[in-house]
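Methods — Computational structure assignment.
A single polypeptide chain was analysed. Its primary sequence is given first, followed by the predicted tertiary structure written as structure tokens.
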Amino acid sequence: MKNKYRILKIVVTVIILGLLLSFSLKRFSSQKITDNKISVKMSEKTPVYFVDEKDIREIVKKKTPQEKLEILIFPL
């Protein structure tokens, strides 16, 4: 009996999400994106750094011979 209600809840949730997606696609598909509404301000005071997983692995290998993160100190 529990499985029936669980499956019923999943089906109802999927149907509701499908209806919401359909409604939003119908409503917003005709709108155009204009350059006036989208603006990105880049602050030069606080630089953003992107670190790749490969870079993190290299730092861990250099700083800790045991490869344990509990004693790792990242350079700023």
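Note: The helical segments are 2-28, 53-63.
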